[in-house]
Amino acid sequence: MSENNYSELDIAIVGMAGRFPDANNVDELWQNVRDGKCAVQDLSDAQLRAAGVSEDDLAHPDYVKRGIPFMGMAQFDAAFFGYTPKEAAQLDPQQRVFLQTCWHALEHAGMTTDRSSFTGVFAGCGVPAYLLQNLLADSQQDITSLLALTNGNDKDSLATRVSYELDLTGPAVSVQTACSTSLVAVHMACRSLQNYECDSALAGGVWLNLNNEQGYHAPAGGSLSPSGQLSAFGEQADGILIGSGSAAVVLKRVDDALEAGDHILAVIKGSAINNDGKEKVGYTAPSVTGQAGAIEAALEFADIEPNSVGYIETHGTGTTLGDPIEIAALSRAYDGCANQQVAIGSIKANIGHLDSAAGVTGLIKAVQALRHKTLPPSLHCEPLNSKIDFANSPFYVNTELKPWHSDSVRRAAVSSLGMGGTNAHVILEEYVAPEVEYSQATPWYLLPLSGNSQAGLDAQRQALAIKLQQSPEQLPLIAAQLQHSRTAHAIRHAVVVDGAEQAQQLLVRDVSGDKATNHKIGLMFSGQGSQYVTMAQPMLKYVPAFKAHFEEVTALFNDALQDELRRVFIPNDEELLAANQLLGQTRVTQPALFVVAYAMAKCYQSHGVNIEAMLGHSIGEYVAACLSGVMNLETAVKLVTARGEALQKMAPGAMLSVMSDAQSLAPYLNDQLDIAACNSPSNTVVAGTKEAIKALQGELKAADISVTRLHVSHAFHSHLTEPVLGEFAEVLEQAQLSAPNTPFVSNLTGTWITAEQAVSTQYWLDHIRQAVNFVDGVNTLAQQCDVLIEAGPGDTLQKLAKQSVSDSVIVLNSIAHARDLKAPIPPFVKSLGKLWQLGVQIEWSEVSEVAQGVEIALPAYQFDKTEFWVDAKAVKASSTRVTEHTGPELLEPIWQQQLCTVSSPVNLQDQKVVLLASDAPLTTQLSSALTARGATVIQVWQGQTFSALEQNQYRLDCQDASQLNMLHEQVDGFEQIVDCRLLDEHACGYQLLLPLAKWLLGQGQINWTVVASELFSVLGDEAVSAEKATALGILRVIGMEQTAIRCQLREVMQTHRDGSQLQFAAQLVADMANDSQEIAYRGRQRFVRTQQALPTITTQEHEVSSSAVTFITGGLGGVGLVIAKLLAAQGHALVLQTRSALPASEQWAALIADKDSDAKLVGQLTALTALQDAGVRIAVVQADVLDIASLNVAISHAEQSLGSITQVIHAAGLPGGGMLAQMSAEQAAQSMAAKTQGTDNLLAAFKSHKLERMLLCSSLASVLGALGQSDYCAANSYLDAVALQPQPFLVQSVNWDAWANIGMAAGHSVGEDFGIDEVAAQTLLAGIGQSQAPQLYAASLSWQAREDKVAELTERLMQAKAPAPKGHKRPELDTEFEAPESELELQLAAIWSEFLGFDEIGVFDNLFELGGDSLIAIQMLAKVKQQFAVEIEPATFFEDPNLDNLTFLIEEQLLNE
To answer: Where is each Carrier domain found (predicted)?
Structure first.
């Protein structure tokens, strides 16, 4: 029994977790203790040799060949906690394991971590052996590297790391008292709770023996056991064995735990700690006085009698000195007990000494003993230690499993004694909770599962399936706890089931989860024809929110109609026939539909769903109008009633559903027929007299057009409504109508309703008479909302919407169709689950009740088991590899955490900052953060024309340079732009930024910070937008073309974008002083992109593959033919795509021999002939990658002759090029299309193929930027992003280095020893084939050697002599020739002539009209710098690229100097 009489000082244990030798959790640990299992194992010589033990050690007489293995020490879910692989490998495994333990402990306590909590952390760990043995093996570490390593390995950072990662805001204290660490941590946590320093606390410890797979030396007189057995209180006790483990408990004040409905595992009545001081023989020796003092203090604090304690979990190390002293100290404190009254034991005999984790592990064992009312056996203690007089002490060593009988409340105590003298003692009391049996009223169960990745989600699903197989009766409890007590992660899947068996079946299916993001929800309200008797019955019976709103609206109808509605919705069995007839009357049908749709919409809102916009079909628009505030509920009820009564009085008519569009039906119509509804591109409803409809039906059938007669009594939305409009108008004119506050779509126009329409009597009369334009309306709705839900009976609108909107729009329904009446689960529940999957924060209290006082039945989160480990030898070996390797190198881009790189705080005092706003909430936070830094923020919204709004707020078209000039003039200039537009969705990031970039090129010194989302995959599972990624082409190039522009990119997560995190916005602003051009933020961490080399590629003899068929776009280009030749050598059959028609093969020989043939064509035909002569199976297909139809035909033809295509290489593309100042949107679109649209078409064409891989030929230019190549960089950035998106097969983007006179580099010298040639390509292709990475860099040299070579070539390029021959006449230009006159003009004209080869250069001649390009311009400007000692920005010159402007720019600089 439980006294249930707790004081404010009592502390509840509400959660616990741990990993131990031979036990992955606390329940497995208890089972092992119950069963008397010992985790110590004998180790064979073979095992020890494999673990690195030397022959000398194996032969040494004091070497003990026993150990305590600890599985999974290197495993860590790095991505879950936001660590890169490198960071994870350099983080102390103790901290990794303990971090996961704390997560599991909070889970066991039912505490979620999706919001910060006032929780303290008190914990300690062992010595940082991993740092000392593994990470510091390289003696060449500098101080910066050492500091970085100690950050992840210092004992001091254990507790604070947990607080940071789990967002816990209570005290975070690392405790270090040697063996008593974790029990001291429990004591400190109790005191912190008792002092109200936190509301909950994690307490625990971790200790890992890195040499757990080895034995150990046990010299005589040492503390380690020579026998290899820990025998606490036994005669044979000779020392300890070192184990490994991690454990933590979650604590709360008892009153708080009871109030929160927590499951209390046990209660801490008191605790105490002290130190022995100097009253002992030595520093490491124990002290009777010290230990007894701590025990007595704990008993006194608990205010209990010592004889009420029935079991003590002792420190019990099994040492000859320690055990007798511990019993002597306990005997002194428990002196009032009868002889051998109290059972004692020590878990160290089972699992060894866990050092920093020992105390809390003993505590967990004692808690389990209380919970199970069982006294556990203690091992290896017989015969008992003869130096301890147990017979005359209060204690006996319990050696067998037995029930713990007690006439009063059970109590236990735990001791932990630290080397150095810090002692801890804790008093526990059992908690007997009232019997609680959780049940659920609904016949269905919604199971929301999530993981940090798809693999993580799959692991949770599998674990839950196993749990339900073991305990199917717990399904209701599991569903509720998943909803209320689990943190929701990024990748989600909700399962809705009617029982445990169905749950198991669905959980083991291979299903992809949804990435939780922000979605906009639109509701669609059904029109007449979807109704049926009992349509709301399951919702009324099982969904309280629906029932409440249903009753609210029904009560507003008159009594007679209320009664009729009751008979329609919940008829008795004998009323069913009459109810169907009643529902067929329009005056009842329309109110019934309104009631259901209104209650359904309000039900969604009650469940946490925010309605962004709405669309109603006919009568459904009244629901939208009511919810948007056009009419209040009372008015809506009156109008719906009057509308139904008026339409009931119509003359009889008929309606016909036709599988055709409205335009095609026009020839069949007459004055007796009207289009009543345009439902979809292929579904139109016609209304009219019965005779006319019958005749039309015959005509259309004769024309082979499918038709269906609708079961209606009247011809709604036709001329037959006109006689009753006057009656309804009288009611309408008395209604109070207002402008809508939530947008909804008009049935009449198919666009958003205006305020004027909403309050117009004529509009609502036309609404009855005119056709329902649903097809346009639903497309309008889908432009603003990406999730549409039919909030009414059936699925008619759901099906119609799917016929009209794009596949990216998700369309759901809420109430079953009449044909699905017997389905056990209403669509609403499945839609609710889908909404949660998509990221909607569901109000779970509307779905189920919180399970009060019940233990968490869920399996713990299944962390990823990837291993991260640094071996000392591996560190040394890798330190010189890069400098020695200079051949072609394959690298993988990686993201590394950036700790702190801001050298000085950003100073915006009195600066004007233009903030280009977006719809993201982060924009508002940035505005506040900039203002807080002293900036004057000028907020600009995208619009059509320039207009000033409130103070420092403007609306303008950022694509219009003249409007940007107006802004610049209006605010008298500005120094900084913070551009947030890429936080929103855009069709092309490059086109969005191009006009502003071109304008900025003419503004001189300016800072441009772009804040964007969905550009990078840092953690490996983020959504990436290829369309937005094209913006990188500008952001990585503009600084090269105009060094006066300081361009920064700050990429954020969706949670940053949509959250209200002023602290994060402040960090973003502070990081404007950060020198890194690009930073990605994940959580609170900064990441910067770098690269790591893959293992040295060794080219081997390739196995010939007769089944491989590779499709190469741009197959007759230089790069395509090189790749084709290399793959042919591996046995690949080849499909080479080309846009241009190729001569017939019988003409090839003659064309090759003809000296007048086109050189490019001859090269192509020669290469093809060589491939054919080598016996390669080859097909050349003509198709345009921009034309998917021709692409599909080409693929089909190729597969007919060569078999199924197994690999695709997209090598097609245009070089693009041109300085940003001259770039046009059209030019960029044209140059990018082959790569962007071409890639999309290839993915579409091959989506059903079982490809091994698709290789996208990108360029290093997309990563590093390239002067005058922004569009080319953008197109390749698109490819890089596509490869990071989920695809049905492996897609890789390879960023090729410059090719050596091949492909787009043909005719361009890239310098000796630089550029990818055929030999290098063979090596790189071999490495690519061995990699599964989505993005790879293919460099012609090692990265460092490449950087050195590029610097050298750039310098040589700048000093290059003019290649142009002299003596050419000036070409005919539109510009009239005007000779240079001044000395400077003449000198400059001589430079131009040197590079362009013309005798005469006019001062107003345009460089590009003279045949120059951006490369020549850069070389000439370098010559100018060399000759006149002035540096001219290319972008400034390109604004007006002639001698006159160049002269002005040089003179201006010289005068300034």
So the answer is: 1379-1454
